[in-house]
Amino acid sequence: MIISRVIPVLLLRDKGLVKTVKFKESTYVGDPINAVRIFNEKEVDELIFLDIDASRKNENPPFELIKNIASECFMPLCFGGGINSIEHIREIIKCGVEKISINSYAVKEPSFIKKTADIFGSSTIVVSIDVKKNIFGKYSIYINGGKDNTGKDPVEFARLAEQMGAGELLVNSIDMDGTMQGYDIQLIQRISGSISIPLIALGGAGSVEHMKQTVNDGGASAVAAGSFFVFHGKRRAVLISYPAIKEIKSIFDN
User: Fold this and answer.
1) How far apart are CA 27 and CA 94, in angstroms?
2) Separation between Cα atoms, residue 55 and residue 51, nearest integer Å
3) Structure confidence by residue, pLDDT tens digits, 198-239
4) In the 8-state DSSP scheme, what is residue 190?
5) Annotated catalytic residue, options 51, 53, 130, 177
6) Would you say residue 253 has pLDDT above 80?
7) In 30-167, where does DSSP find H-type helix?
8) What is the pLDDT of residue 191?
9) Structure confidence by residue, pLDDT tens digits, 91-146
10) Alpha-carbon distance 202 to 104, whole Å?
11) At what angle do helices 32-41 and 63-72 cross, to 10 degrees?
12) Is 130 a catalytic residue?
């Protein structure tokens, strides 16, 4: 049996790690290098780092920090945030990063997905989609750190991203972000059922059962989480953790 990947997502703000709730209420959770060292010891499948302010502030990716993170990271590493040029991607790969997550600019300029996939290969390009549901239940893609509603339908855009050459999609529910109440299974189902490339579900994980449900019922190829790996207990004390390999196998075996 193929075991689904279980991926920690770490959010960067001002070169520190934070965790948000519904893309707001930012809480400092530590130093990125220390977090990488802990996840190394726990033999994590892979890591995703996202700079959550870069696109909104129109800033370049923090290349020196990325280089330091990659030099400490023993597992495959994906980086996203503020990427809007071929040169950005080239520099980040030089830093030692294997995958690139493109968010806002992919939505603004879908042809950029094809351009990057043609140059670096589809396996390098992860298109990240931040989705929010309105009071009428309609889903829409948000960009610039969840600030701006594009009005675009996430299913239609997911199909377009696949056509343009994306190797994977990272689908994040703004409504469930940081709540630890479970993934938006309906959203994951809709998108996974309309594409053939892997989908990584993000937003809402609070237990391993949530992960199992989004793979089995939602059709996700992999599950990612933030709060689940950095908070402990009802008071959300900061404590980095990761399920043992045996526990991960048991999640998807049953």
Assistant:
1) 31
2) 8
3) 999 999 999 999 999 999 999 999 999 999 999 888 788 888
4) H
5) 130
6) no
7) 32-41, 54-57, 63-72, 86-94, 104-108, 111-120, 154-164
8) 98
9) 999 999 999 999 999 999 999 999 999 999 999 999 999 999 999 999 999 999 99
10) 17
11) 20
12) yes
